[in-house]
Amino acid sequence: MRYIYSAILVVAFTTNLYAQAVNAYGKVTNLSGNTINVSNINETNDTFEDGEFVIVMQMQDDVIGTNTSNNSSFGNLSNIESAGLYDIIDIVSHTESGGVPNTITFSRPLKFTPNISSNTSVQVISFPTLGSPDYTTTANMTALDWDGNVGGVLAFNVDGIFTLAHDISADGNGFRGGSTDKNQTSGGCEDNVFISTWTTRAYKGEGIYKNTSSSFEAARGKILNGGGGGSAHNGGGGGGGNFTAGGDGGVGWGCRNTSGRSSGGLGGIALSTHISSARVFLGGGAGAGERNNGWNTSGGDGGGIILIKANEVRTSGFCGGISITADGENGLDIGNDGAGGAGAGGSIVIEVNSWNISGTCPITIQANGGDGGSVNSGTHGGGGGGGQGVVIYSIAVPTTNTTTNTNNGTGGCSNNSNPCNSVAGTGGGTNGSGVSGGSTGGPLPILLQSFDAELIKESLVELKWVTSTELNNSHFIVERSQDGYDWEEVAKVLAEGNSVTNIDYVAYDNNPLYGVSYYRLKQVDYDGTLTVFKIKTIINDQELEASIFPNPTKDILNVVIEDENTYQVKLYNSVGQLIELPMTYSGNKVTLNTTGMEKGFYLVVVENGNTSLTRTVIIE
After folding, report:
1. What is the CATH number of domain 546-619?
2. In angstroms, what CA-CA distances link 561 with 259, 508, 547, 564, 608?
3. Best label site of 396, 435, 471, 477, fewest CB within 10 Å?
4. In this structure, CATH architecture of domain 446-540
């Protein structure tokens, strides 16, 4: 499928060029166990690092099924599959090639099974924690534009207070609008062409099905939540869909005098029945308008996805208002032929414990559909309006100094009269139906603020961790390893269960290993779901204190241990062979009988639990 970016659209959204992006992105090409292969890496604004969290999201899936015939059912949903599902998970290791990751291994299996094929898109997105723990914005924030492989998502976590001093926008970062067709000669009412190659019909917008067939790329049929393109002649493009459906494109010149017939693109479908805090979608791209004189316009892009997790969101001081938006792009009004439809609103998920918005700095949060493009001559097809997106809060929908909108876009004018007496379809549904609050079904049941291990003394390691959010959390397991591969349990701690405040935990290893050892934390849900968190390293290099005398010796060797705990003494020859000798133990002293032994150098090894001491002795 082909998409274009109009120079006028770039100018219209030039403010995003000066906004701050905070995410890294990669295309997932394979999944094997807990390891993904990745390509198309973009680490311009962040990097993928061990111990940090990422999001794995199914952007597009093979959801079209058998709905591929040349009729109005083309592009209907067969089965939602994994489209829109995402999981937040931590990296335990990764490999690189040419300085960028090519594999990433997670601490546990993903909570959904991504589908990876030619008709799907799965991406991994960094999920950075900003601040320590509080964070105040320093510039406007945005996402990388979706390019068919990566982008479209702005996501981050703030452990403490997140203060908004700038706008956050994913406007137009979503699924891409369709491009215009080649010039078509004037014709009749082509209302029966729903699929076509890119010749005389305009391109469809992009949706949650990744189209790879040139036979499906153009004409009236929507493609899931992507709006259909206009057909001959001068049909308007259909609007993109998300929570609600996009509006149909205007009927066009060829169908102007035929009641009930249209060459306008069909609006993208509604996905409301599948949307939750754990499944969200980019706004659908709109279809382009069809041309015969070279003056049509392309479809608008859908809104992107914003995922924000914070303990508290607040504003302060005096400002003209702060906004968090994921709006769809408007269609353009400059055409004489069919006009492009508008992109659908995107998706905003805000998981927060406290909402504190100042009356002197109010906030607007919205995911609105764009308005369809209008034509400026005759009775040609205007573009369909974009469907509304979603705004989902973990708390009740806030109203104090806060405005939340999910509005449908209006259809474009299909003639140049004033006022317009013929408009394309408006996005479907009731304005505001995409707003919801009190969601508890998000993908992150526990957020770990910190996990630390400290050697208190030779015989004690203290392990401490803090959670800021818990959901259905049964217990924790602390494990220890000497090589990082084989693990043993050293402590089990019951969890709070459900909480939205900071919880402190502590456990102890009373018998730590000598040398380098590793500790990791496991979290277990009530249903048995297991999450493994960061690994910490401890170096226990404290040696035993012991006296070995006489040295050199002939008949008797004494070893006196200052620590009276259990210990063991061993003697090795110069080639590492263990020598069996009579030994007499008395408290913290052991006596070795070396009578008759061959002269030379020997090694005395004293072991006490997880510590040891090695000394060279000479037998004469």
Report:
1. 2.60.40.10
2. 103, 26, 7, 7, 9
3. 396
4. Sandwich (2.60)
